[in-house]
Amino acid sequence: MNxxxxxxxxxxxxTKSICPVCKIVTDAEINVRDxxxxxxxxxxxxxxxxxxLYSRADWYFESMRFNKPGTIPLQTQTExxxxxxxxCGLCPDHKQHACLGILEVNSHCNLDCPxxxxxxxxxxxxFSLTLDQVEAGLDAFVRAEGQPEVVMLSGGEPTIHPLILxxxxxxxxxxxxxxxLNTNGIRLARDRRFGEELAELEPVIYxxxxxxxxxxxxxxxxxxxxxxxxxxxxxxxxxxxAVALVAxxxxxxxxxxxxxxxxxxxxxxxxxxxxxxxxxxxxRHLPFDPMQRLTNPDxxxxxxxxxxxxxxxxxxxxxxxxxxxxxxxxxxxxxxxTVVPIPRLLALEDYLDYVTNRVLPDPSIRGALEKLWSAxxxxxxxxxxxxxxxxxxxxxxxxxLDQLADRALMIVVQDFQDAYTLNxxxxxxxxxxxxxxxxxxxxxxxxxxxGYREQVWESLSGGHVPAxxxxxxxxxxxxxxxxxxFKTIGEPRREQRDATNIGQGL
Length: 506
Ligand code: SF4
Ligand code: SF4
Ligand code: SF4
Hints:
single chain, twelve-stranded mixed sheet, binds iron/sulfur cluster
């Protein structure tokens, strides 16, 4: 007699995603196996796909307590038409306003890194925004947010845009609280005059910094950039520019370096935060297996294993303004070899648990913590310093109060979604948007995965940009190279590209 057999996984939820090859919207399911969370979907033309979403299912479920109610923006930019993720955006269904706006001012770069989710480099078919285009994007952001907290100027390499200083001045003049500049550091290292002009405008520098070993640089950036990174850091320290170090982490390349990177960040006077991002498998990237990709728990576990005297997993808390599995953060007080994570001094879960409805010990401390555990938190800014001062009143240890803001280092672990892992449930609460000169504010992970990036690039450059397809090991036989270094499989059907609101709804 036949007997029934149990499945080897627990079905957790139903959602929607996209086919990583042709980008049509698909049904998707999320399952748990061996305490790991996987997303699975099927495209009628390209078959089934599965990817690792989160390597600790227990941490994922625990993080859901930290899901804060979203805030409605003052204005949305598109109509509801085809459903998520084809109506970006923001469309009226989106669940959160934009904590952080990213404006890519060019697609040119002075490097051609083997990993670049934007596909930027020395290619000829690029774009470089005009002052009018930047103003149109910033105005849309201000209309949606009132007084936006942070805009990040990015690229390409924004420091080689001839108008970059004017863009910073313009953003500040429009009342945006803080400007951050996303850079590989080469111009800062080489051009003292530029550094001085920049310092007058006080942006926070988001400096690409993937590790201390030569091999890490060669594999991720194609060149040994260690001397330039150190020179850029020194320049920032001399000029009083606050720095966030941003490390793209790839399994088997530099995941063994996360502890050394944290140590280095603590030793640098200009550095106020360390941002770890598992490599985003969009644009250009090394071949990868979606079932073995790095996720936030892997990065946190590596930090703890490599710095066991300083950290434990419970020091990292999910950020409540976005979907809680997107981003985890801790703050530490650091002085030499003494490092104290702030969550050990304050019962964070009493303040940031939005589900259990506990009585808050002090609502003003919850407000301060919401600002600190947010995508808009920019260490080195007066806002963050003020919030650190505020939570100091709630800390258990009065002797750490002196110069709290000066001694605090923020550590962020942020896993962006790609065309394999895209989950609309997570995307609909995204609080990081790409500001497009045509006025749309497109959630960052949709921009990189669904086809928006190629459309915007085409409309700004006037030339053809092939649809980006992930460089996954299982797709190698389908993939073709492009002049931009990322992979494609040729043209998707026209109606799919037209479904994403380019030039519509404004
Ligand atoms: S991601 Fe947000 S803005 Fe885009 S379609 Fe979905 S709900 Fe709308
Ligand atoms: S990752 Fe940054 S530095 Fe490297 S090519 Fe892309 S834009 Fe340039
Ligand atoms: S950009 Fe991606 S990872 Fe970040 S908040 Fe938005 S959906 Fe989450």
